[in-house]
Every structure is written in structure tokens, then in C-alpha cells.
């Protein structure tokens, strides 16, 4: 089976970059990324892409209009494609059964129904979104119940894991076709094929294991602060054991991002449904510890500022959930900012890549506050770190952007209220140097 045309439903953080790489690596394949959002597609077709990712601009510029297209014409995309990726969003449910834990599969279902309505030839349908185990079955049921004569579907699960691909179906030819696409740039030995359920569960398991490492080191950061141990030294020592390894052991104000919490909650919900409460409780602890870490850090900020931040100017440096992205989903900076705003603080926020409207949205939407106008009045967004910190009582560093390490802290100290405080939630600054300048410094996992 030869793949000439690929269509992707969902032009988000997964669909956009994944398809751009496929277009780059497979010049013989035409890739069309479709989205129902006109605004998103217009952004993908503009000079300023909707997503910031190092290197993405160059790849899109090279391929767009040649073998990479962004379009709202979903019908055409589906009809022409040999292979369709579903990479729509699967957010945590905010209502009904499984609220706050289960993944909401309504976008997956609507994508499957669109394919069933529109397809007039055989398709390989690849579930790329992160879904609960057995979600491929939903897609299969919808497609098979609505199949038009002469149209056959093969459904594969191929969740997004960095460079690994996992795929399987009874139709081995479909698996081979998808592997052939990836083999344009990934060595065949690195492409794993598994059964569908293993593929879906491996995705949840991988994110759960990664998040668990962060919660483990964050739990030890609290012990370090209580004892005088240094969490970076502990991580370095523990990571030397090759069975443990050094990666993903950075203590922080807690993990964020659109996937870790969502996928663990999804795993917990699955375990509860399977009547495995002990397993559910085990994974719940990873999320609870992460909440604890965010709370613990914020409490430390407030306590250090004499237990009152009311009307104090606080500079928030970094708002994205990690460096090198403008993505704010589940960013720990949101929790920190919200709590400080609840306590009456005036926040001056600077992030090198997050859009101004996005910060306002995260702090004023109905899920986080019932007083959006009051919150809006108490936030100011800046386009440099220096203007954000001028006149501030404290700096709270929430994201580990490299440029924060290069700031002139003597100049900053001179521009701040005294005593001047810095709370380094990412352990990236030179704490000795800051103390020598005159700052009061607090960080994660180390007493200063
Ligand atoms: P996203 O919200 O950025 O993008 C999803 C897009 O799908 C939106 O633009 C939405 O308008 C569109 N959409 C929804 N229904 C549609 C339909 N029927 N037809 C066409 N477009 C439709 O989401 P994302 O971050 O790209 O994540 C997508 C999936 O991949 C999720 O399941 C997520 O868990 C998983 N995932 C995400 C990442 C990541 O780094 N963000 C990594 C691995 C896996
Ligand atoms: C994560 C996984 O790393 C990817 O493999 C996976 O494909 C993806 O989720 C997904 O399924 O969406 P991502 O959310 O982009 O990727 O970001 P990470 O680099 O994993 O960071 C997640 C959070 O953990 C960030 O807030 C980061 O600052 C934090 N983190 C990471 C730490 O606090 N300490 C660490 O040592 C590492």
C-alpha cells in the first residue's frame, strides 16, 4: 500500500509540527493539516505561526505550498487522503461522569463521524491523540457502523511519543504503510509495533512514569529544605546509578503542560473503572504531590513577605509551562499567580514568548475567578523583565528561560523595593551572587 496523501485532523501542538516534519522528510507525500478553527489555519498560513517551537518556522517555510498545506476544507482533506491522522484535543472532562479525571472524547468522536460521512475510498485512520485504552474501539465502531459500500478502514493507534512510533491492527498492511512513512527518517529498528491496547496504554504509562520522577524529586526537595541537604546534589548522586539515570530529575515548582496531569488523571479513572482502587491511589499521589509542590512554593512566597502580599507589586518572570514554548496549559505560573492575586497582590508579568491575551485568558477565565474585572486591574504585562521588576517587592521566577540567567541583577536590585526578594522556582540563578548583591533569596530544595 503506497501512501501519497496524508490528511491530519487537528492543527494543534501535535498535528502541526508532526505533519511539518513528515512533509520535510517525505517530499513524495502531500500532507494537508485541517482544522475546524479558521483562525488557527490562518495563523499556520501566515508569517507568525500559532505555535512557537525551535526550528519549526524554517521547516514550515520550506514545505508550505509545496507538499504541506493548512486548510479548513476538511471534506477535501479527508476525501483525498490515503492516511488520516486524528490529532484533535482530548481534554479532561469538566462535567458529568468522570468529571475532572476522564478524557473527553467528544472531539475524537466528531472526527471519526466526519471521516465516516465524507470518505469515499479506503482509508488508514491513525489515532494520534492521547486517549484512554480502548478508544480505538470507539473509532472502529463509528467507522464500521457507517461504512459506505466499497470503503474499508484500517484503524491504528500511534500516540505521539517523541521519535518512537507504535502501531498495530489486524491489517498488517496498514501497519506497514504507516511504518513506511516513518522510515523516511526513523531507522526501522526504532519503530515498535504492538497491539492496539498496549500502544494506547504505553502512552499513558510513559507520561505517568515521567511525571512520577518529577514528583519523586519534588517530594525530596521538601526533605532537603527541612534538613539542609541540596536537592541538586541528591539528584546528581542518585542519577549516577545507570538504572535510575540523570534525566528528568530537576526539582521545580511542579510540572505543567497539557499532558502529564491530564494523562495521569485519565489513567486513574481507567483504574477506578477497572476496579483497581489501589493502583488508582498509587498514581493519584503523583498528581497530589505536584499540587502540594505548587502550594508549598506559593506559601513560601507569601510567608517570606511578612504574610501579606496585599497591594504589593510582585514581578512574575516566566509564564509558560517550561522554557522554549509559548504554551501556558497547566503552567504552574497560573496557580502561583492566581493565589497571589487572591491575596491582593499586583502582578507584573513578563514572559519572552507567551502572548499578552493568553496571560489575560489564563488568569481571568471563569474556571479560575469569579471576579475577572478585579483580576484584570491587578495584572500588568511587560515586554521586558527590567520593566516588570521596577518598583517590585519581590520577583517570582516560574519558568527557566535562559535569558533570566543573563539579567543584570545589580541593576534590578537597585530598581526594586527593599528588602528585595527573589523566589527562584526553577533553581537556575546564581544564588550566592544574588545574596552578595543584597537580595533575600529562596529556592526549591535548598536552604540558603
Ligand atoms: P490542541 O488543542 O493544540 O489542538 C487540537 C486541534 O484540534 C484544535 O486546533 C481543534 O480546533 C482541532 N479540532 C478538534 N476537533 C476537530 C475536528 N473534528 N476536525 C478538525 N479539527 C478539530 O491539542 P494538541 O496539544 O495538539 O494535542 C492533541 C492530542 O495529542 C491530545 O490528545 C494530546 O493529549 C496529545 N499529545 C499532545 C502533546 C503536546 O505536546 N501538546 C504531545 C503528545 C500527545
Ligand atoms: C511531555 C513528555 O516529555 C513527552 O514525551 C510527551 O510526548 C508529551 O508530554 C505529551 O504527551 O504531551 P511536554 O509536556 O512537552 O512533554 O514537556 P516536558 O519537557 O515533559 O515537561 C513537562 C513539565 O515537567 C514542565 O512543566 C517541566 O518544566 C517539568 N519538568 C520536567 C520538571 O519540573 N523537572 C524535570 O526534570 C523535567
TrEMBL record:
Alphabetized, the UniProt keywords read:
NAD, Oxidoreductase
Q: What is its EC number?
A: 1.1.1.22
The similarity annotation says: Belongs to the UDP-glucose/GDP-mannose dehydrogenase family.
Protein name, entry field: UDP-glucose 6-dehydrogenase
Please name the Pfam families in this protein's record.
Answer: UDPG_MGDP_dh, UDPG_MGDP_dh_C, UDPG_MGDP_dh_N
Q: Which residues form the UDP-glucose/GDP-mannose dehydrogenase C-terminal domain?
A: 315-431
> What's a single GO CC term here?
nucleus
Answer whether the UniProt record assigns the keyword Cell wall biogenesis/degradation to this protein: no
